[in-house]
Amino acid sequence: MTAMNTNRMFNLTNKSQAKSTEKLSSGYKINRAADDAAGLAISEKMRRQVRGLTQASANSADGISCIQTAEGALTEVHDMLQRMNELAVKGSTGTLTTEDRVYITLEVRQLMNEIDRVHSATSFNDQNLLDGTFQNKQLQVGAEPEQYVSISIGNFSSNDLIASALAKGICYQTSDHTPSCFVTDGPVDPTTVPGDHVFWAPLASSNTTFAKFDYVDVNTIKPWGSPGHCHLLAAYDLTIFHSFSYNAITDENVKNRLTTDIDDRTAVGSGSEEVLVDNPPCMHQFDALNAFVKSAISDVSETRANLGAIQNRLEHTIRNLDNIVENTTAAESSIRDTDMAAEMVKYSNNRIIAQAGQTLLAQANQSKQGVLALLQ
């Protein structure tokens, strides 16, 4: 009976030592549900959260890379618009000849074409960024559903930048009085009441069409200054530099403002185009270019500011996600991982007991030798 009892205890010690060996070798104190059913369930939930948040952090980093790609392209668009602004100011001075302005016009056209090339060629992961199709892209920045950060980037073709400028109802001054724009009764002047409807009309004896606008608040553009004439920016003013198409406008709000009938008047610009012309440029057109560039720079600046704000937000998101991952991992580790020091003490203790049990089992077996001696 002594040997049987010693053997039973020896087997229990060996099983305990085997479990300690398993925990020390795997690094986990929960290797199966039987080890700690509740702890396993809690640990797996935490692991799901940690892995989801880790991927969300990677998603945010991808979003930053996408934003930096778009913002880098818009930086070049900004630089080209700034150069066009210099050329517009240069072309409107009276010391230049018509031939000089032709040379300036050639460079402006090339810059317009390069803006269009950048708009069509800038992409991230085979998705165009600046052609108006990158809308409402949801970045998953959390481990749970519907934890999104939305990104939208508009269309930055020359055509859409021109359309945006037209839709603002921009007034500009020029000393070259070309009668191309009118309101209901004549050229725009300081007597126009804020909120009055302003319309585009065709040139006399011409089928050329112009954009029209809902309202102009003249308080925002006073004083007019003198001398000079106030004009509303028209697509026709810019056809010396670039062609324009109403049908190609991607922003429906802008398109409706430029083509929808107002006050039962015939819709102007719907389905029509203003084609590139090779007429000798005049100062008036460079004044119009100046007004357009000012609007375009504002549009690009607004988008870059928005992208920069989203990038900053994503950087904060990444830091927050990494912090949550770190703390959740620490909590999961306390539940799932082996306490190596404590388990090593337990292992050493079991090893000593196993050795003692083995010795005592041998002695218990030897105690039966006395019975054999009596029989002899």
TrEMBL record:
GO CC terms: bacterial-type flagellum; extracellular region
Keyword Transcription regulation (UniProt): no
Claim: Secreted is one of the keywords in the record: yes
Flagellin N-terminal domain sequence ranges: 1-134
Subcellular localization, as worded in the UniProt entry: Secreted; Bacterial flagellum
UniProt region (Disordered), positions on chain: 1-24
Biased composition (Polar residues): 1-19
GO molecular function: structural molecule activity
Main localisation: secreted
Keywords annotated in UniProt: Bacterial flagellum, Cell projection, Cilium, Flagellum, Secreted
Flagellin C-terminal domain mapped to chain residues: 293-375
Gene3D superfamilies (UniProt xref): 3.30.70.2120, f41 fragment of flagellin, N-terminal domain, Flagellar export chaperone, C-terminal domain
Function text: Flagellin is the subunit protein which polymerizes to form the filaments of bacterial flagella.
PANTHER family: FLAGELLIN
Family of this protein: Belongs to the bacterial flagellin family.
Full protein name: Flagellin
Lineage summary: Bacteria, Bacillati, Bacillota, Clostridia, Lachnospirales
